[in-house]
Amino acid sequence: MLDSLVTSKTRIKLLLKFFSHSNSGYLRSLAKDFDESTNSVRVELNRLTEAGLLVTEEEGKTKVYKANQNHPFFTEIKNMVSKFLGLDDLMERIVKRMGEVEKAYIVGDYAQGIDSGTVQMVLVGKNLDKDYLDFIRDKTYEKVNRKVEVEILEKDPETISGILVYGK
C-alpha cells in the first residue's frame, strides 16, 4: 500500500513515526528503533528535511527531528499514514471507551511500515475495560480486515520500540 508510493523502507518508517502522532526523535535512537544503520536513516532524514516535511530543533548537541505541522501537505500525509495504519477510527474509540488510557503504541510490523495483516498494539493505563477490548478486536477485523493483538501494561516501561499514537 504505502510501500508502492514510497520506495524507501527507511523513509516509510520515518513517515509512520513522525506523522502518526506528535513524535520526535534523533538520529541514533531512530536508527536503533528501526534496526537500521545511522547512515541510511541520516540520508532519509536529510531528504525529508530538505523537502520541508520535517523540522529540526537543537537540544544541547543533539538534533531532534519532528513533523513540520506547517507544511502544506501535513494533514494529507498524516491522514494517509492513519489510513495505512488503519487505526484512526479504532484509536479514537479505544481511548474513549477503554478507561484511563495514558499511552497507545503501534509495535511490530506496522510500526516498521509492513502490512502483515496483524496490528500489534501496546496500551498503557490502569483499570482498562478488557471486555470492551475483546469486542473492539472483533469489530476491527470486520471493518479493516486486520487482526489486532493488544498488550496492556499498567506502567510505561519507556523502552517500547514502536510508534506512539496516543499520549505524551
From TrEMBL:
Gene3D superfamilies: Winged helix-like DNA-binding domain superfamily/Winged helix DNA-binding domain (1.10.10.10). It comes from Algoriphagus taiwanensis. InterPro entries: ArsR-like_HTH, WH-like_DNA-bd_sf, WH_DNA-bd_sf. This is Helix-turn-helix domain-containing protein.
